[in-house]
Write a structure and sequence with these properties.
The chain is mainly alpha-helical and 244 residues long. The chain contains 8 helices and 4 strands, in the order αββααβαβαααα. It is 48% helix and 8% strand. Strands 1-2 form a two-stranded antiparallel sheet. It has a two-stranded parallel sheet with strand order 3-4.
Length: 244
């Protein structure tokens, strides 16, 4: 059954079982990545005075707000190191620092989210967490996605990423993102939450690796998602290179 029809069956059994494994694996990975995070934090602070780490508000499991950790990639415009203005970030956003742009191209600014996973606030793979202003907790589509912790990475980034950024670049008010992009992301995320299996996750991880490294992206994920979530076809042909 398509993820866009019928009553939501809830998270897949694999996704529920995987949460404990994610926390253990994230704790190990955080220890291994600590020197890299420390070096990046030093470079960020050296080139742009302000905190190296920032906590941005996001909505997590069951609609609870939490602070998502990131290595700061934007100018520090507040006392806690965050940038002011819209929560959306376009490809040419002048708030992004030069070193921040390089980190974003390799997703290195997301490394501290391993700590969020170890705390149980996030998981390794899953729907990306959204800023509070874009979440409608009474919407059944949101309730389906918020039944599990959000992820550091997920299939939605690969399916709608560049299309999402192009709409943000064209409409800085955020209305296109709210009205056009969010429904598609929710449909793809809902499909993943309900149908995730070990095999799906392995294919998603493989696609994410190919997505960062040079070379063609796998079309398996796109074909699979488009078959289950017809509305995702709107983003066809735009593999993401710029994370939000």
């Amino acid at each position: 059954m398509s993820a866009e029809r019928g009553s939501p069956p809830g998270p897949s059994s694999w996704l529920r079982r995987r949460l404990v494994l994610d926390r253990v694996l994230a704790a190990v990975l955080a220890l291994l990545a600590a020197p890299v995070m420390a070096a990046l934090g030093y470079l960020v602070h050296r080139h742009d005075d302000g905190p190296a780490l920032v906590r941005v508000p996001r909505i997590g499991r069951d609609g609870r707000e939490f602070g998502m950790w990131k290595i700061r990639s934007m100018r520090a415009e507040t006392s806690d190191g965050r940038a002011t203005g819209l929560a959306l970030t376009g490809s040419a956003d002048d708030r992004i620092t030069p070193i921040g742009r390089r980190m974003r191209s390799l997703h290195l600014d997301e490394l501290p989210q391993l700590l969020n996973v170890a705390r149980g606030e996030m998981c390794l793979l899953g729907p990306r967490p959204e800023a509070p202003g874009f979440v409608e907790g009474d919407d059944p589509a949101w309730r389906r996605v918020l039944a599990v912790p959000p992820g550091i990475a997920g299939p939605t980034q690969l399916i709608v990423g560049e299309w999402e950024v192009s709409l943000i670049d064209a409409d800085t008010t955020g209305s296109a993102y709210q009205d056009v992009v969010v429904p598609v992301k929710l449909a793809v995320d809902g499909w993943y939450v309900e149908t995730a299996t070990p095999w799906t996750d392995l294919r998603v991880v493989g696609a994410l690796v190919r997505h960062i490294l040079p070379g063609p992206d796998s079309s398996w994920l796109r074909r699979t998602v488009e078959a289950a979530v017809p509305s995702s076809v709107i983003a066809r042909g735009r593999p993401s290179r710029v994370p939000r």
